[in-house]
Amino acid sequence: MTARKIFHVDMDAFFAAVEQLRRPELQGKPVVVGGDGNPHKRGVVSTASYEARVYGIHSAMPLRTAFKKCPHAVFLAVDFSAYGEYSRKIRSILREYSELVEPMSLDEAFLDVSHRPEEPVALAEEIRRRIKAETGLTASIGIGPNKLLAKIACGMRKPDAVTEINAETAVDQLRALPSTVLWGVGPKTAARLEAALGVRTVGDLQGLALEVLQEHLGPRHGEDLYHVCRGEDDSPIVTEWEPKSLSRETTYQVDARVRDTVIKTIDELAADVTEELRDDGYRGRTVTVKIRYRDFKTHTRAQTLPSPTDDDFTIRTTAVALLDRFTMDRPVRLVGVRVSSLSRTASAQSTPSPQSQDSGSSSGQEDGGDGGDGETGKAQSVSGLSSE
Ligand code: DCP
Ligand code: MG
Predict the structure, then answer these.
(1) Cα–Cα dist 371/66, whole Å
(2) The dihedral sign for the CA sequence 138, 143, 147, 153
(3) Does the model's pTM come out above 0.70?
(4) Interval between CA 26 and ligand 2 midpoint (Å)
(5) Domain check: are 139 and 215 in the same one?
(6) Is 144 domain-assigned?
(7) What pLDDT is attached to residue 97?
(8) What's residue 183's pLDDT?
(9) Is 275 a catalytic residue?
(10) Whether residue 67 is found in the same domain as residue 154
């Protein structure tokens, strides 16, 4: 097989960069985008400009914490429709260079440019110039022989950069990076590997025998990681993107103590998800409800239906009924509803709306565990590929 050339394109501080672009007075200033833009209310940071990151502000941090770190930052509400417009422009530029484009989120895509005659770094620079000239925004591009290495390369140097990892030097280039840069190593797996085996870096993982990884992670995950830590990945570019799930969640301004309040929220969220499901031309089979309590313990309960549906009544009543499987012994901080196991409605022609970051913490399996991942504002989400 001939070697592939894969690019991973990721916009820099995307939401904040769009805000700085349309309000030039914000350029060079710390800008924090999240929730409804009020840093005194609950909600989390969606992103921060690089000027704000200097103060230690990052995505998923509670807005109130961000405010404490940098009270003079400009706090702005999330405006998905504006970001979606830029996302579409960027995507259409990428499609001029290859038909094989796999969008991963609003600001991120893989691109297979194996067929292009240009030298990859020069081609990546040209794409960056086009994006900058036509949108005013900067992007970083990672180049690799596969998606895994292209994505890692992109993350190694940001903002406004092109970074390449070669197949031949991948093992060396990965060695010093933290294990969490790898697919399949989320925070939980990383903590487990560190506690059991003292693993912190990719190099530490490279030093482990296949059997050791399998013993700790199970046969499948262990074997995957054995290859991934060596930079090996043959996953294809998936061009016809299909969402795995649609979800909505909301954080209460004041924790809910009354069951009826939570029922009303679940019903409203389920109605929203169903509307979106129909708009996008999907039916779903599995309905999941997520509850995060005041102590941040997060639980999910799921119900799989006999057949896929986009029926409003069915989805709403299924979601509300799931509440019976939660205890209401503590005040509730956040509620989410997700519909997954999606299939296309026969008559549907439309393409799904652009995905946004999935802020859900658990996988939508029955009785998911504890998420504990900080505050989350109301977030509409179409989940892409999760990294763990
Ligand atoms: N996002 C979000 N919640 C998160 C992470 C991201 O809402 N927890 C949104 C806001 C980001 C956009 O998704 O602008 C893209 O996410 P990235 O992880 O690519 O972050 P940025 O583009 O903001 O910054 P970077 O320059 O690090 O890519
Ligand atoms: Mg980005």
Answers:
(1) 21
(2) negative
(3) no
(4) 19
(5) no
(6) yes
(7) 94
(8) 92
(9) no
(10) yes
